[in-house]
Amino acid sequence: MNKIKLEILGLSPSQSQAGSFMLVLGEEYGNRRLPIVIGMFEAQAIAIEVEKIQPNRPMTHDLFKSFAKAFNYKITEVVISDLREGIFFARIVCTDGMRETTIDARPSDAIAIALRFNVPLYTYETILSEAGIVAGSQSDAGEEIEEMVQAPKPRSLSEQMKGMSLDELHKLLEDTLNNEEYEKAAKIRDEISRRN
């Protein structure tokens, strides 16, 4: 079965499920989107790695990476391998150089690990055909995806930061990291770097 390479297009709070996030994956050379509802902690783990934020303590997926490296295992790819009764399943493919091993995982965890190992993410045509949404479709999920992928990012934080001193920005950064608001912290960090 041919694999289709995916890339992360967006991550935002889910409008349909309170306390959850919508992770949108897109096929590399196409216009189909694969929306996956994930939990808050997994969304945070993905956002931290995408934004290259260093948390104060290692997260579970960082621990997995350290453990794998300590035992000379390399992750070669992650595959969203199945869809049963509306639930996605994934596999993490790894090797010790002599044999290949496949580990079952939730897609959100597998994607967080793929990001940390900088390995490709794939799925199969059958899954994209069943659960994929063509960009521009009018279903409720499609509207949520299009709003997330195409809507301009809110400017409120940027406007706030314009009037702040570097000391105030550093304090705000510390507060957001303590509150584990990592996406917001990344924006503040970028503003501090821009001013230095």
- How many separate helices? 8
What composes the largest sheet?
8 strands, mixed
Gyration radius (Cα, Å) is: 18 Å
Tell me the number of structural domains. 2
* Helical coverage, percent range: 40-55%
Main CATH class of the largest domain: Alpha Beta
Structural class: alpha+beta
Tell me the series of helices and strands, N- to C-terminal: EEEHHEEEHEHEHHHH
Average pLDDT works out at 84
The end-to-end distance, rounded to whole angstroms, is 51 Å
Total beta strands: 8
Shape: globular
* Strand order within the widest beta sheet: 6-5-4-7-1-2-3-8
Instruction: Pick out the low-confidence regions.
Output: 149-155
CATH superfamily of the largest domain: Bifunctional nuclease domain
Q: Report the CATH architecture of the largest domain.
A: Roll
| Content of β-strand | 25-35%
CATH topology of the largest domain: Bifunctional nuclease domain
Describe this structure in words.
The chain has eight helices and eight strands; from the N terminus they run E-E-E-H-H-E-E-E-H-E-H-E-H-H-H-H. The chain is an alpha+beta fold. It has two domains: 3-150, Bifunctional nuclease domain, CATH 3.10.690; 156-195. Strands 6-5-4-7-1-2-3-8 form an eight-stranded mixed sheet, sandwiched between helices. It is globular and about 55 Å long.
